[in-house]
Amino acid sequence: MEYVNLDKTEGYKALQEGKKSSVKELLTPERIKAQSIKLGGGLNYNWAAMPISEETEGKLQKLSDEMDLIGKYKEILSGKMMNPGEKRLVLHHLTRGNVLGVKVEADGEDKDEFYKGELKKIKDFSEGVRNGSIKGSTGKEFTTVCQIGIGGSDLGPRALYLALKGWADGNNVKQLKGEFISNVDPDDAAAVIERLDLETTLFVLVSKSGTTQETLTNRDLVLETLKNSPIEGFVPSKHMVAVTSKTSPLAKDASMLAAFFMDDYIGGRYSSTSAVGGVVLSLAYGYDTFAALLQGAHEEDVLSTEKDIKKNGALMDALIGFYLRNIMGYPATAILPYSQALSRFPAHLQQLDMESNGKHVNRNGEKISYPTGPVIFGEPGTNGQHSFYQLLHQGTDIIPLQFIGFRKCQYGKDIVTAGSYSQTKLNANLTAQIAAFARGKDDENPNKEFDGNRPSSLIYGEELTPASLGALLAHFENKVMFQGFIWNLNSFDQEGVQLGKVLAKKVLAGCEGDEILKAYADFLI
Amino acid sequence: MEYVNLDKTEGYKALQEGKKSSVKELLTPERIKAQSIKLGGGLNYNWAAMPISEETEGKLQKLSDEMDLIGKYKEILSGKMMNPGEKRLVLHHLTRGNVLGVKVEADGEDKDEFYKGELKKIKDFSEGVRNGSIKGSTGKEFTTVCQIGIGGSDLGPRALYLALKGWADGNNVKQLKGEFISNVDPDDAAAVIERLDLETTLFVLVSKSGTTQETLTNRDLVLETLKNSPIEGFVPSKHMVAVTSKTSPLAKDASMLAAFFMDDYIGGRYSSTSAVGGVVLSLAYGYDTFAALLQGAHEEDVLSTEKDIKKNGALMDALIGFYLRNIMGYPATAILPYSQALSRFPAHLQQLDMESNGKHVNRNGEKISYPTGPVIFGEPGTNGQHSFYQLLHQGTDIIPLQFIGFRKCQYGKDIVTAGSYSQTKLNANLTAQIAAFARGKDDENPNKEFDGNRPSSLIYGEELTPASLGALLAHFENKVMFQGFIWNLNSFDQEGVQLGKVLAKKVLAGCEGDEILKAYADFLI
């Protein structure tokens, strides 16, 4: 497989020399109907309101073929060493519980069997907790699951937990309440612990390396609280499980109630479908719910192997995003779910995208000259409409938009006011925004004029369920992966976080004569 | 007072022609010690790690003087019509309960007396609820206050509520629990209502115009739930108050328990210190807490009148932000509070900044040619370090950073692990990040190389209290106001949100033959 820099490809040159199109001129009802691509879990990706003419679309297909983006995805699925920075395989697709590539062996084991084995452990354990056969140390059933983790051990699982709460409520799914502690700021743990009933809480400690500073610190804070509990017969170790790698110090900690494993081939931001998300979601909503999410993700993984960009939503989304960044020169992208349940999904995508592709070197560690990952931000609609949309509509920069919407709400508790359901109002707003951003509006008064030509895509479906949520997650994972291939960078390491860690240790050791650290530390410590 | 476009000023030309400085070269321990400016509420603004040489600083001062930024602020304080788009005064500074300018009369009343009168009403009512003399309809004391509002009626009050929760817990302040409903998505209201005990909940309905679609819809959803309550003797109207303008339909709604007023001179995103934030915060934490927040904001307002940019943190922050945007060409700014309590403060600033200055016309409604407001986003540290910081350190674009940190935590529940308190670890990380971003690190391996020169500022203080929070809020309000003056735009209207509202109504009316709306609506409705 050949890995070349984007600026060495014919396809990039052709796109740079191509005519730029106007969304306003391109957008027609026919285009809207024609330009939807099926994703997994019953979702669709629509790119009608993107500045992609038929000619540009052809060139994107050529670039995809020239760079063999699908071939590179298949290298991942086949267990090639696709994280060269850390010399690791990239196996998160295998955590969906379905083999997509050839058999992958590593560390002397069949990795598919390994992940399936962990899934089985998650199933048995979560069922035991949920049916009451595994109880707290004082004999009470667990009612709450509290995840302690940060970064990928927090953002993805938390976003998914919140995304399924309304679905579970609306479908009378038995639940354990989910709580999350992440920040090393002691106020984070204090605020959460304050609302917990320790006797009925099960903590899930998540750290792949078993050495994450924030997570170990918060574990100690929690253990201190548990140990000081005046409850008779209370045994702290019966209230905590670990999710970690087999080789980590946590794996050997016999005081834990149980341990579930992932490995070095699952990056934190890609770990939501591994035990990192699986334990907490299976405890909160049941293993079947988690399995349905995995199935949705798997469906999307399969669709992502398609070479025809008009049949591969993740690939099309990736190519369009690259076009907006490198040809149109737009520096940021907004994620705008019209679904309160997805309130923290943009924060997960912010990590997924910016940590994966916010790089200035290629796969070989050589500096590259073209822009890579954009800034990603977002809030749910309609809330954002009353906030930052002013800039999106009338600011001096163009920010491409990724809308997400569902026909039905989750709770089913909706009423008609002023002639329509709330859910209808929500989606009327979403519909209106896409058109407003694309077409703009002329006005004699420039203050009331909208230039339009603000590109957007829309992912839509019937309802946010475990399956559609899994597909949505995998769509963005695969999009980001394809963009990493286009930029010829390694989306699976994160060297950019190391320097801060080293310097923080130095500060904790008294700054070691570093006068700049000392001067700032004097303000704060 | 003269209002000219930025590109017509001598100061802008001088800055464009000036030498650009490197943060890496500028940053010294002496600079860090020297370049702090006192803000209100015991806070400080430090700009040592900004690419601002002494020469540039002099030019920024000249631009400030040439554009008479302080004079323009004083026009606001004196009650001039400073929102020309909507032909309104801009009076949020008066809501701090302290006159700063001359006496302002409008609508036939002294506005200072008007806001003070509302403050008195808030004091009396909140004390009545908190001491139990005002009870729910079944005779139980209120334990929960639930705000129904969107945009400025939600983001600011919610951010402030969350910011003070730990302070209130840590200081044993009597509390009513705060809840918030904002999104028209019916799942938002459903999720909140599910956790409420209706008998002990007081709803605060907030809409200046009294016509906000989301807010009225959510009121109706809540009222429907209240009316269907099987509790004997339950009277829904005794569980709701309004915050609105005197002229709105809500003001005349006799079914409400009480009504508190703001007016058209308080923009939504600037309304946190009016009754919009005052009612919910006084109910939740007591009027004295809210009064302390107002006092902190007032202190910062006073400091913001200083002409010397080295003594005016909001003005310096504004000028530096403009420099980064218009001279350095950076398209975004990240807000990074090292305080979990400020988890939603970046979302508030996102609205404040992007809705105020995301404009393409000047104060006279004429198109302008220079970039205005940047994209604003952010999450608390250290969480962000495990997420999007990779791009901030090693991405291909430079994103300026605004750090916020406090010496002490709020709860005071902290322990020593691995030789240090969690709060110390938190601030060691903050210290380390500023240095890492500024200085970078050389390495033979480009993947481990950090270019540095990532500019940052730091707002720091002893603790996040009502007073320091008020000052922090006012700092950013005044920063955004000064930047609006620099760009010669109107920071107080929001014409960009209108088109979407009009089109949403069209969709609800069946699309009225608009085939593009119809095509999207078919996916969603």
Automatic annotation (TrEMBL), chains A, B:
At the top of the EC hierarchy, this enzyme's class is isomerase
Which pathway does it serve?
A: Carbohydrate biosynthesis; gluconeogenesis; Carbohydrate degradation; glycolysis; D-glyceraldehyde 3-phosphate and glycerone phosphate from D-glucose: step 2/4
Which residue windows are coiled coil? Answer: none
Q: Which InterPro entries match?
A: G6P_Isomerase, G6P_Isomerase_C, Phosphoglucose_isomerase_CS, SIS_dom_sf, SIS_PGI_1, SIS_PGI_2
Q: Which GO terms describe its molecular function?
A: carbohydrate derivative binding; glucose-6-phosphate isomerase activity; monosaccharide binding
Domain of life per record:
Bacteria
Subcellular location field: Cytoplasm
Biological process terms in GO annotation: gluconeogenesis; glucose 6-phosphate metabolic process; glycolytic process
Keywords per UniProt = Cytoplasm, Gluconeogenesis, Glycolysis, Isomerase
GO cellular component terms attached to this protein's record = cytosol
Q: Which reaction does it catalyse?
A: alpha-D-glucose 6-phosphate = beta-D-fructose 6-phosphate
Q: What is its EC number?
A: 5.3.1.9
Q: Which residues form the active site?
A: 355, 386, 501
Q: What protein family is recorded?
A: Belongs to the GPI family.
- What is the role of the protein in this entry? Catalyzes the reversible isomerization of glucose-6-phosphate to fructose-6-phosphate.
Under which name does UniProt file this protein?
A: Glucose-6-phosphate isomerase
Species source reads Candidatus Ornithospirochaeta stercoravium
